[in-house]
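Hi C.,

You asked whether I'd gotten around to modeling the 133-residue construct. I have! Everything is below, sequence then structure, no commentary in between.
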Amino acid sequence: MEFYVHGSVMAFALLVVFPIGIVMSIFKPIKNWYKYHKLAMLTTASLIFLGVIYGLYHKDNLPESTNEISVYHSGVGIALLILILLQLWWAIVMRRYLKGNKWWLITHRIFATLITIFIILQIYLGTKALKSL
């Protein structure tokens, strides 16, 4: 049961809230788009943090059949969390000092691309681990 809670929290964060934040920044559909982009990304980071902590806490309850996949899933999950925290630091703190600098925006987009790649990898590893339960 605890794996479904972990998966549900992560799926909601990565497949619902994260894309909303991305869409807000790409299409800028409303006047105050940045406020909603920031809210969506902070919500995503918070849910991922909770999901990673919950997953690591319950990792010992996994059956032996998922050990190898679980190690990769855990490692990629921690790397994803670190990337997201770096992105938040870059977006909130460094933006104040580098606003208007094209390298800030390029770096922000590189972080976002890496995070998206890690998300795809995590979904693959997570579903593979779930199937082997």
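If it helps when you're writing up: Residues 78 and 84 are 10 Å apart (CA to CA).

Thanks,
B.
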